[in-house]
């Protein structure tokens, strides 16, 4: 088992350990996705849910509940809920980003249309809401309602601050908390809440999810700049072309001189870009070690995630979650 | 008072009678609309909420709670929730319909962009969700979760069946239940639920909202075909041009001969329309009395709404709600 853990990716190990639960989640998702009157709904939703997603968020909920010794049945609901919310936000994001690819496949808005992406997203969100009510836990509903508001607010904030080169790291952190960390932390937190765990455990798992989510998104943003496009399943420099200010850009911009600032003003604020500009952007990031400094930030957040687990008693899953935090940032080694 | 009631529109009478509560709703809506980080949110949302909307849905909730003798504070929450949900669906609808006007003003997606409409809609929906949790009533949460799912499903269904001239009245009813009646019935039902009313009263108010919503939407669809564009605040024939099959079209199509069917196939299914086609469509509707028959359906639903109130003890508000059902269909006299 120990040697297995060294060879396998942590989320694959989690999937294996939680296979029975994950199968139950898949079953519930398919049951609840179905619409009697609108066959297009499961068609679109399963395009996304099957599209090679690692189901990381539902795994976090299942892992959290298992770690807290949960004996009931609602962890399956909760894991399905977070996957529904995640899928709904992906559908809406694709409309907002006008993206062409998602997980290496054509995005839903390209295969169908923006209308379907908006409405099927709404449908999945309302389905998740019904599942929440079924758990009968107002505490769970409260956490997920707050997470939903943070997600939506983060998305609007991102829209407001993109194209604005004065965006700083504090704002960036708010954006990615909404974009990613809010659902990660809700996913781990509800697993502990449904288990009736004590406050310190609930808080520890919340903090683990939050820090893991922040690390995950920083790495994602880094990969967009410097990752292998074959592995990440989308084109390099998408964020630059969409004039979206992620951490490596923010670090480079905050260090640059007046001449260089003019470059960012032209490309990001005015959106006047040539095909060579992304290379120039990369060179400026290298000059100010923006990529390396972003990587160090991601490592710091991974460490925060691991440290937060100190409050949780030792067990198999804790080991995997610790490795998962390392693995998430290992992607940019 | 009795003579006043004869001169004033029923929803104006309700607004007057419930002014204190409605002011509290406005206050709560403004408080909860605010986003610390994203000033665009209240900007967009208030464009809609202020745009001459009659706040009919929150009024229904307040009226229902008052009629049921509610003494608590959560009717303000519930009324704000239904207005938030309504505004969120309007924002998403405008993206889906690619509409240029809403309540006689440019729609939000035209003033800002589709992105903002999608995300601010999501934000308002998540805010409504937080308000629901604050009521602490799982029954209320259940009703609103189910209403949300019906709304989303109805919207997707509408997308699927538009441009399909085999759409029948049964499907149409499902679409408008999602589009309009689900939120009307939830609005009246939660007012009774929060008051702890008995089952017969809760059901009666649910049915009132449902039938009123159906009547309201049938009339809305009728006005699009035959209403005065200055009064309705949008162009005549929008549904025809958007190839959306509403009740007058469905009635005309189901009666027509083969030649006429070819007209509908060309204009609705193929979308091959000339500027004269809407007039031809109107003539076909007149030939088969589709407009008159649609009006009779609306009257029938208004009667159902009024009859459902039989189960409710007599009082001032019951009288106004009865008049409201008449008023809603009077728009097409």
Secondary structure: elements and pairs:
Two copies of one chain form a homodimer.
Chain A lengths: L1 H6 L2 H8 L1 H15 L6 H10 L6 H12 L6 H24 L3 E2 L2 E2 L1 H4 L2 H22 L2 H24 L7 H26 L4 H28 L2 H4 L5 H4 L5 H9 L2 H12 L7 H11 L2 H19 L7 H15 L3
Antiparallel strand pairs in A: 1-2
Helix pairs in contact in A: 2-18, 3-6, 4-8, 5-6, 5-10, 5-18, 6-8, 6-10, 8-9, 9-10, 10-11, 11-17, 14-16, 14-17, 17-18
Overview of this protein structure:
- The structure is a homodimer of 333-residue chains.
- Chain A is mainly α and 333 residues long.
- Chain A has one domain: Farnesyl Diphosphate Synthase.
- Helices cover 76% and strands 1% of the residues of chain A.
- Chain A contains 18 helices and two strands.
- Chain A has helices spanning 2-7, 10-17, 19-33, 40-49, 56-67, 74-97, 108-111, 114-135, 138-161, 169-194, 199-226, 229-232, 238-241, 247-255, 258-269, 277-287, 290-308, 316-330; strands at residues 101-102, 105-106.
- Chain A has a two-stranded antiparallel ribbon with strand order 1-2.
- In chain A, strand 1 and strand 2 (105-106) form a beta hairpin.
- In chain A, helix 10 packs across helix 11 (199-226).
- The A-B interface holds A 35, 37-41, 92, 95-96, 114-116, 118-120, 122-123, 125-127, 129-130, 132-133, 136, 138, 141-142, 145-146, 148-149, 151-153, 155-157, 159-160, 171, 174 and B 35, 37-41, 92, 95-96, 114-116, 118-120, 122-123, 125-127, 129-130, 132-133, 136, 138, 141-142, 145-146, 148-149, 151-153, 155-157, 159-160, 171, 174.
């Amino acid at each position: 088992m120990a040697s297995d853990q060294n060879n396998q990716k942590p989320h694959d190990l989690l999937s294996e350990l939680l296979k029975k639960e994950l199968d139950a989640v898949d079953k519930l998702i398919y049951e609840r996705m179905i619409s009697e009157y609108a066959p297009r709904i499961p068609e679109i939703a399963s395009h996304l849910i099957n599209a090679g997603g690692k189901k990381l968020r539902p795994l976090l909920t299942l892992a959290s509940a298992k770690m807290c010794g949960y004996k009931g049945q609602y962890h399956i609901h909760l894991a399905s809920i977070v996957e529904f919310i995640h899928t709904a936000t992906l559908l809406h994001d694709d409309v907002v980003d006008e993206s062409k690819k998602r997980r290496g496949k054509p995005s839903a808005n390209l295969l169908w249309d923006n209308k379907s992406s908006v409405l099927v997203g709404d449908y999945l969100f309302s389905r998740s809401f019904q599942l929440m009510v079924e758990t009968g836990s107002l505490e769970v509903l409260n956490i997920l309602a707050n997470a939903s508001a943070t997600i939506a607010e983060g998305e609007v904030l991102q829209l407001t601050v993109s194209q604005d080169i004065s965006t700083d790291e504090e704002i960036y952190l708010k954006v990615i908390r909404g974009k990613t960390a809010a659902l990660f932390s809700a996913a781990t937190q509800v697993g502990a809440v449904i288990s009736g765990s004590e406050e310190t455990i609930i808080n520890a798992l919340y903090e683990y999810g939050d820090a893991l989510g922040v690390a995950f998104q920083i790495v994602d943003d880094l990969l967009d700049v410097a990752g292998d496009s074959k592995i990440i399943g989308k084109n390099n420099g998408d964020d630059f072309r969409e004039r979206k200010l992620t951490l490596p850009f923010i670090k480079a911009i905050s260090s640059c001189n007046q001449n260089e600032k003019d470059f960012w003003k032209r490309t990001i604020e005015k959106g006047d870009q040539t095909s060579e500009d992304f290379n120039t952007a990369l060179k400026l990031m290298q000059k100010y070690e923006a990529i390396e400094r972003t990587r160090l930030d991601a490592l710091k957040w991974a460490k925060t995630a691991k440290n937060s687990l100190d409050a949780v008693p030792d067990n198999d899953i804790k080991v995997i979650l610790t490795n998962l935090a390392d693995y998430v940032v290992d992607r940019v080694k």
